[in-house]
Design brief:
Blueprint lengths: L3 E5 L4 H12 L3 E6 L3 H11 L2 E4 L5 H15 L4 E4 L14 H29 L2 E5 L2 H5 L5 H21 L4 E7 L5 H4 L3 H9 L9 H11 L11 E4 L6
Parallel strand pairs: 1-2, 1-4, 2-3, 4-5, 5-6, 6-7
Helix pairs in contact: 1-9, 3-4, 4-6
């Protein structure tokens, strides 16, 4: 019997890999996108998933999107919140709007999607997964706002896991260096330095993060909640 999945931030990179993974295993999948309309529509045609434009920073848009998805699905087995963008800026050069935007798109967005879907997840004894980052665990130089927002997701995960139990499981994934647009922003020398810190001696693939999300949303993870699953090749242990 197919499950019903909502992925916030699914048009590119890790999110697109998640859409492909859940769709391939037969789940009915909906995903949101912000600016990447062409990529989103192409992915929707490829996978059969449903694409919804939504700014996760906007409460009204999140409410409307969740209402539309739930009115179509009538149920929800899992929520995955992946929406976000990086900011490469040292603290002293970070403006207040930039700081607030990072917190809003990563942390507030996760709060809004979780709040709107928890009743449906509770009915199905479902799962929620938030996508943090290795920088949310260790802190990234020149990525202070991003690191703070991603660290906040870990705190949200642990608190909500207690609050939503026993009916809803809440976990977090902390990817390391993954082959996405974010990685391509580093210079060749910077990538070599990062690679030297990874015991498995390679960068990860979006599909490997998607596999972790699929596991945490599956019945195989039914006794796992409040955890941070690091997909980082051993970069942080």
């Amino acid at each position: 019997m197919p499950r019903h999945i909502l992925i916030a931030g699914g048009s590119r990179g890790i999110g697109a890999a998640m859409v492909r993974r859940f769709s391939r295993q037969g789940d009915l999948t909906a995903f949101t996108y912000l600016k990447s309309e062409q990529e989103a529509q192409t992915l929707a045609r490829e996978t059969g998933a449903l694409a919804y434009p939504c700014d996760s920073r906007d409460e009204a848009q999140v409410k409307d999107t969740c209402r539309r998805v739930l009115s179509l699905f009538h149920t929800l087995d899992a929520l995955v919140v992946n929406a976000g963008t990086a900011l490469y800026r040292v603290l002293e050069d970070t403006s207040l709007p930039e700081w607030e935007d990072q917190l809003s798109i990563h942390l507030t967005g996760a709060f809004l999607f979780a709040r709107e879907t928890l009743p449906a997840l509770r009915e199905k004894q479902g799962a929620a997964v938030f996508v943090s980052s290795v920088w949310g665990q260790t802190g990234g130089s020149a990525e202070t706002a991003y690191s703070a927002a991603k660290a906040g997701l870990i705190g949200l995960t642990r608190a909500l896991a207690k609050e939503a139990a026993p009916l809803v499981r809440v976990n977090c994934i902390a990817p390391g260096m993954i082959h996405t647009d974010m990685l391509s922003r580093f210079s060749s020398d910077e990538q070599e330095d990062l690679l030297a810190q990874i015991p498995l001696e390679r960068f990860g693939e979006p599909a490997e993060v998607a596999a972790a999300a699929a596991f945490l949303c599956s019945p195989d993870a039914r006794y796992i909640t409040g955890q941070v699953l690091a997909v980082n090749g051993g970069q942080y242990i």
